Amino acid sequence: MNAHAIAFSLPASWLAVPPMVFVAMVGACVGSFINVLVYRLPRGEGIWSPPSRCPSCGTRLTWRENFPVLGWVFLGGRCRFCRSKISPEYPLIEAATAAAFLGLFLVWFPGVGALSPPTGAAAQAPNWARAGLGATWPMLLIAFTLVGSLLAMTLIDARTFTIPLVLPWAATAVAMAAHPLHALALGAARGDLHRPLSLASHWTIPTPTGAALGAAIGGGAGLALSLVLLRIGWIPRSFADFDRWAEEAKAASAGAPAAPVEEEVFSLRALLLRTLLFTGPAVGLMVVGFLIGERFGRPMPGMLMGALAGLVVGALLRAAVPVSNPTMAASPAAETRRARPAALGLLADVLPPLFLGGAGWLIGPGQGLFGVGVGMTLSVAGRRWTAPEEVESTDDGPPHWLAYPHARREMIKELAFLLPPTLLAVLGVWVFRLHPIDPPLWVEALGGSVLGYLAGGAVVWAIRLLASLAFGSEAMGLGDVHLMAAVGAALGWADPLLAFAVAPLLGLGWTMMVYVFRGGASAALPYGPHLAVATLAVMIAHPQFERLLAGISGGVIRLP
Hints:
By secondary structure, the chain is mainly alpha-helical.
């Protein structure tokens, strides 16, 4: 029996197995590379050399020891040479990456990558995927690169509170190169450089036209100009003196006498409270502004005004939570908080969202969601009195860099960096309104990637600037700016904005989960992982977010 007869005799659904296996294997291999990045980048080691070796005995590993997942299983979790224990984190990361790649593939291309696609699976896939895997596989490559970068950034940021910028830069470079090349190749094959991807979707990401395209081109050119000016020293680099200040501060603290018992120290948990109190009202009032604006035919300006009002309210609430707390051992009130049962804190976490959300739902879905947001904000505020605080060391980690006293001054430098992109974006809008053009698809695809990069970075940078100027300490690192900019370059302008709105809810959920399972013990986590998880959620559950927004607005919402 020849190969054609064998293929014909097999059930058609089983022909989907090879693509699924291939995608999972690629994901596992990428996960193995992520392990290398997570281990080496924070240590300043090279990515490609030296070759992989046992961290205990230094013996170079062969391909058998490096085989994703199975290599660790066959070795029994120990080095074959020195028998030292190998962390199970390595195969777990490889398996998680394989699962993420395979899950995204099955969601986007259910007809190709599933033995028997569930009912409604096609509705879960994005519109552009209807053009088929053969015509859209570069988008899958862009998405896989982004997912791998997000996983690596999450792991490194969770450990070190830093994001190596090479990771978002790599995802950005792949996106900005692949999008226009994909459109150019597709147009050349069809003999029409202006023809859209399909009837269902113009392109795989939102593409700007007219003034929006002018803003993308002008903003991108302005960003390139700022980078050149920064390189030659005409624009000062922010936080350039931080390392010297940190060394002096460490030396001063080492020679200083021991702090008294009532000395105030930084609390990571209090910092997280302040962050959530700052963003929670913005999310809630953004929904209210959207609903009010929709009634007057201007939903987006209403949403913007609501978000700005929420930031003002959040700033007032956040100011009520100090970034430093007295040492708990010397405070009778702290001992009282420690003695309170975990159930009290759990009730304080759960009851306000349930009560206010249920009351709002009696009026309408949008009011219900707003009630949940207000309730969660109250829950976070209430945890200040119901949950015990843990004193964190000021020798390392976020409290150290948060003590830097010149954050407001450094924000002025960053505003100077942002001035050329802003001015040239405005100029681009003006020029393209006066002289509209009909660009080919590849120019629109590049413009969509650049506009997404600018939008994703701008939303985080705006919060960073406003909060740092308001409170005098660095709020949200530049790594978070680059992370969301990379998301925008890969997925377009809409998804990073949506992910940024979802991330505070994930942050609150994380603190609640830690509170319940650790009995109230604080476990600080930087914001980058929340942004990464929110992005993955938006990529996989795009239709669900459309339905959620439609329920809020009472109409039909089509996310780009």
